[in-house]
Predict the structure.
Amino acid sequence: MRDRPDGIRPAPAGRFRRLLGGGRRGGQGLGALLGGTGGAVLEEASSQAAGRLRLGRLRRAALPVPLHLAASLASYPHLSLLERASVGRAALALRGLDPMDPALDDVDFASWLRERGQSARTIEALWDLVGIATLNATAEHASLGLAAMVFKTGLLSDPGAADIGWASVPLGELHDTRARAALDKAAVRTILRGRATAVTRTAPPTGAPGHDPAPERGLRPETAAGSAAVPSAGARWQVAVETGPGRTELLDADVVVIAVPQREAHELLPEGALEDPGALLKIGTAPILNVHVVYDRKVLRQPFFAAIGSPVQWVFDRTEHSGMKDSPGAENSQYIALSQSAAEDDIDLPVAELREKYLPELERLLPAARGATVKDFFVTRERTATFAPAPGVGRLRPGARTRAPGIYLAGAWTATGWPATMESAVRSGMHAAVAALTTLGRPHDLDFEGVGRESV
């Protein structure tokens, strides 16, 4: 769901299989699926057996849900027999939840798990193993509704929904190069390195037939979408864009989609566009820290692994995707990346401290790294990488439509019913596009698994 630093991500069945196989933008051969082989989970065996690693693997079988994970769970070495049995009962209870139920939004995931017999160890070794990476929060700080969406979709909806997929090219090729080529082909003008600073009305609307002034709130996307707001012929908007020092360009538009983070959206929205614009400022943010290490030799023989009982979360082999093998003198080197979600404790630490913290952990988890030379070490910090999926956040997330005719919102933080994932971002864009085209009275064939029908 959420992109990893090297493009590896859980890939819900169907739509992301199509995406990795080429999608709608000429991307054939840009991705691959790991299928049911699963992912490795490493942990030191015990304090008495220091240095020995215990390897577990979560994989699916070609069986119907929920039996597709039964064999893997039964042999998962990081939980006791009783803990494994308790997971099955909690999973069945989770499967019965409706992620769109507003009541779930006020409950934290950890409390719900504990009430269903999940020990602290089970939460750490299984639920948080998946949840931190997809929600960017621990179970203690995650809304039950958003957690239910992740686990029901990824583990309990379809046997192939938890297959791991990854991009075989840099993410810039997927998210920038290919998309820009499609926009250029459609004669869409793209302004790079510009910043929108204001959205103002150039002509006040005289009436908006069918416009429902009630704001869109709640968890259900179809409820949040509201009814169409049709501007009058004279209702136009002007967007001020800073294109350089002392340079501002004014763009006229019939409709405007504001697709920026929530705090920036708060600054850009015209007065009265939302009943409670301050709610956007109450949506928190969560950081992601990426640690990058280049070794002089191969230290990781799998495409990725996860760790428990360690500050290390997920580790990926970036060598091939980064093009390092083609660099002179780097033929034998390996580039690995650590993706650290919910990284509040580490996000502002100096590089030297992060090096002291993570290199010894990598040596502990990867024996081949103990004699290897570190050729490079650097970090990338995303302090506001995602919105925080805290309990209660659902009532703060607005839908695509606003009270201002012709103004729409998009972003993973809007009311899609999903946490801060690429799925949420895409759905929000589809909601906004369908709403804008409908307002303009233009025909369209946009329908992303029901998004079109929900938004009209």
Summary: Residues 1-25, 208-233, 452-456 have pLDDT under 50 and may be disordered. The chain has 14 helices and 15 strands. The CA atoms of residues 294 and 375 lie 5 Å apart.
